[in-house]
Amino acid sequence: MKQTSITPELCRPLSPARTVFNYGMTTIAFLLSGLALLPLLAILLEILRQGVPGLKWEVLTNLPAPVGMEGVPNGFANAIVGTLIMVGIASLISIPVGILTAIYLAEFSQGKAIAQLIRFVVTVLSGVPSIVVGVFAYAVVVLTVKGFSALAGGFALSIIMLPIVILATEEALKLVPTSLRLASSALGASRFQTVFRVTIATALPGITTGVLLAVARASGETAPLLFTALFSQNWFEGLTSPTASLSVMIYNYASSAYAEQNKLAWSASVILVGIVLFVNIASRIVTSNRFKNR
Amino acid sequence: MTASPEPAKKSISRDMLQGVNLTGQEGNHSLVDQGFTWLVQGVSVSVVVILGWMSWVIFGQARPAIEQFGLGFLWTQNWDVNELVFGALPYIYGTLVSSAIALFIALPIGLAVAIVTSESFLPPWLRSPIAFIVELIAAIPSVIVGLWGIFVLIPFLQPIQQWLFQHFSWIPIFNSEPAGPSMLIAGIILAIMILPTIAAISRDVLIAIPKELRSASASLGATPWETTFRVLLPSAISGILGAAMLGLGRALGETMAVTMVIGNSDQISLSLLDPGNTIPALLANQFAEASDGLHIGALMYLALILFALTLIVNMIAIVMVKFLSANGQS
What is the mean pLDDT of residues B272-295? Predict the structure, then answer.
């Protein structure tokens, strides 16, 4: 090759086509990423704009008013109570079962094939559509008891929460140094004592985070409640009666023709999104040490 | 993920625990420990049983409809509650088409987010927050995304749908007057909802690729994007496809947001600007009012189809993602 043909190559190592391709792709990638951030910002902005003005004390303490009536206090206190009760039932089932399963996976099953199977099934369970979980709860509880109930809703939510609790707890338990377990055992502790006094105690912040994420997820779930707990315009009447929930209320009122019901839906969204964002951001801060080297 | 809080002190690895039995063998301890071991084993097995129980119960409830309609249920179109004639095709079609639109939109955007937040285009302190904000969309309850869809997204996209109809109505998929809710908008809503799944998993997969591959490619004179397309994406391909499959699994089963924006029409229409329906949306709309045994059976049959579909898609996805993460470590 001649000297003259090499010199420009050294000055401009990239051909124009490659330069254009490189900058073009960078631009496209950043535009698409920007596009990806838009929906969340738009949703949050709209919830704040539409929901916050209607979020008054009377909304939190009153029953829904009959449609079209003016001057009657209007609210969704029954839905708040219903959501608390059903998420409470779901927590009572899923937290103990979930933590015990995670203990088995992290502490008792090193290298066993069955642990792989359980972990696989739990991951698959976390991907089962929530509406299918609702159908399952309908078949198991509603058809047996012959009626929609808070119990059926709580049962459905517990199946939604279970995989989240298991996977998060197992992650937290795995981070506990093995030396702590051996030290505890060397001091004469039984397996039971080691697990509860040392392993669980050390992993508690991680486990709490996982449990709270599951609770946040369950409080926003709608599909499993639609035909298990149904809805109710009244206060909570017992575990075997149809029960209102914030998420089903948002669904019912979103498509309502009455503007004041639409408004209530937005106000309820503020509460749900508030809980969900608070838990997610807090858990991110708590576990941020784990992600530092990313 | 695997970094321990005190890496320097951790000379005892988890693998060393294998074969070491910490269970108490003597005295009072042994009874408690035996019981405890049985308890955690029993509970863990019961979790596995739930999945089988779920399939068994839904299959059992669907049996009247399966016996009545057989496999023909899958490709017949009539859904008449009064006549007790049920065919699932419009709902299967709607589920598949809306999910396909979602994947078509979310895959390139999710990949862009994964590349921008995993490669060195941005300073590290900016990458994680962007990835986190994108992942946060997954935390927003689906019913609230639907509420936003009704009051913000549909009015915003309606002029665009009109424009598509006016200028491209010669293309069959835009060949109808848009009325607001449509298959296209359902696909877009689904794309928004599965974007975090695709972005987060693709990002994990890209981060897991050894640095040496990037350095080697750069030292051969490749630009960052040539490295991305010829080295990173090919070596991450099974993980990215797995991420797309997981996203697809989520899209297939997503209920509330779709129900609220798809328009719930029982007609199959080639035009994406027409309203449609999906399996989850039909279940959400009809289950609470279903009283006839055959109607419940037909709905259960639909739920069974959806369950089987998502189960297969998710299992393939999990195997693909796991397969790659095993590759990345070696």
Answer: 91
Output the domain CATH number for residue B118: 1.10.3720.10
Question: B223–A162: do the CB atoms touch at under 8 Å?
Answer: no
Query: How many domains are there within chain B?
Result: 2
Does B271 map to a domain? yes
Helix crossing, B89-118 with B293-329: angle to 10°?
20
Per-residue pLDDT, averaged over B170-177, amounts to: 89
**A189 — alpha (psi -120 to 50), left (phi > 0) or beta?**
beta
B202 near B110, Cβ under 8 Å? yes
Helix (H, G, I), strand (E, B) or coil at B188: helix
Average pLDDT over residues B290-311: 93
**Closest approach of B251 to chain A, Cα-based (Å):** 9
Tokens of A175: 């981070």
In Å, how far is B275's CA from the nearest CA of chain A?
16
Chain A closest-CA separation from residue B234 CA (Å): 17
The contacts of residue A76 (CB under 8 Å, 6+ apart) are: A59, A60, A64, A244, A246, A249, A264, A267, A268
What digits encode the pLDDT tens for the residues B103-138?
Answer: 999 999 999 999 999 988 888 888 888 999 999 999
User: Do B94 and B54 share a structural domain?
Assistant: no
Same domain, B181 and B212: yes
How many interface pairs between A and B have CB atoms less than 8 angstroms apart? 292
B45 and B108 both lie in a single domain: no
For tokens 């030396």, the residue is A179
The interface predicted TM-score (ipTM) is 0.90
Residues B226 and B142 reside in one and the same domain: yes
* Total of domains in chain A: 1
- Does residue A21 lie within any of the structural domains? no
pLDDT at A73: 80
Is residue B27 very low, low, confident or very high in pLDDT (cuts 50, 70, 90)? low
Over the stretch A54-87, which tens digit does the pLDDT of each residue have?
Answer: 888 888 888 888 776 777 788 899 999 999 999 9
Q: Quick one: how far is CA B180 from the chain centroid? A: 25
Tell me, yes or no, whether A3 lies in a domain.
Answer: no
Tell me which residue in B23, B51, B246 faces A125 most closely, judged by beta carbons: B51
The pair of three-digit structure tokens given for residue A104, joined into one six-digit string: 């088995």
To test the contact with chain A by mutation, choose from B148, B286, B313 the residue with the greatest count of A C-beta atoms within 10 A, namely B148
Q: Which structural domain, as residue segments, surrounds residue B25?
A: 21-66
Q: Would you say residue A289 has pLDDT above 70?
A: no
Specify the CATH number for the domain of residue A245: 1.10.3720.10
Chain A neighbors of B280, CB-CB under 8 A: 129, 131, 223
Does residue B13 form part of some domain? Answer: no
Q: How confident is the model at residue B328 (pLDDT cuts 50, 70, 90)?
A: very low
Within a domain: B132: yes
